[in-house]
What does this fold into?
Amino acid sequence: MERKVKELIDRLEKNHTLDTAEYAVLIRERTPETAGYLARKADALRRSIYGNSIYIRGLIEISSCCKNNCLYCGIRRGNRECERYRLTPEQILECCAQGYALGFRTFVLQGGEDPGFSDELVCQTVRAIRNRFPDCAVTLSLGEKSPKIYRLYHEAGAERYLLRHETADPVHYRKLHPREMSWAHRMDCLHVLRKTGFQVGCGFMVGSPFQTAECLAADLKFLEEFQPEMCGIGPFIPHHGTPFREYPAGTPELTVYLLSLIRLILPGVLLPATTALGTIAPDGREQGILAGANVIMPNLSPASVRKKYELYDNKLCTGDESAQNCASLRRRMEKIGYEIVTGRGDPAV
Ligand code: 5AD
It folds into this structure.
């Protein structure tokens, strides 16, 4: 094996930090052999903290309406073809009840930035879930809001917030988003969320248009510095109704490699093998878990709306993707030596 790359992996395993330039070397000079070496270290480190436990989160896609126009995203404002829907609090609670019976103890309410879903209604819904399922955690993933709104969400009982930073490189950010959106504001939101008291998740797409090894190295450095409790990454997958329809998808290979690197940078991080990874490769979920991921987020949205929340083409939403097929998911995980556990799954460190 390349001595330099192996030396970098060994040092990362020991110190959980490298220079940005060193991260770029790890990305550029990876081989199947170094990827295997890295994955074994990531798996061992995850096992030393979390054993063979895999945490599940029930994902409820509460609204496909969005005021933003991100160039990669299927539910962008400019996509006329996207069917828009908004769940009612009653529908959301019903999803939670179904999820609870299946063993879920975390509910993730995700949606576009939908001004029609008022902050008061979000708070009411969070309070209702916490009242009815006091042993469950509520995670929100509703985009950029003001510090005041984040505080209200937190006071209502939401303890976790997912907001992918999308890219740590401001120049790259410009190429993925329209002018009215701002990299600085997004990064600011992550710091506000942290200060508000949330467990915070950030993350990025792998293989998004114009992404370079240097962009990814900056993402890894950002993770190292920000120390998020959670981190979501998945391959970019083109959506036919977006300006990026012709761009190639990210690869499962690079996604899995980055999952391993993230595990070595943030030993205790809650790291999902995402739906996008499961979409791009039939065994993507398994590959992700074997390389250091420890969370899976099956879809708990009502079957009638699932197809409408189409962030990218062919997004999985039935099959083992759906929360209703937990038994099958459990078997798949057992087959590779892991166990799905019930419980809130808070960070271990
Ligand atoms: N491919 C992969 N992931 C996407 N997301 C949005 N559009 C796509 C796409 N075309 C991701 C973004 C967003 C998260 C909810 O979904 O990173 O933050």
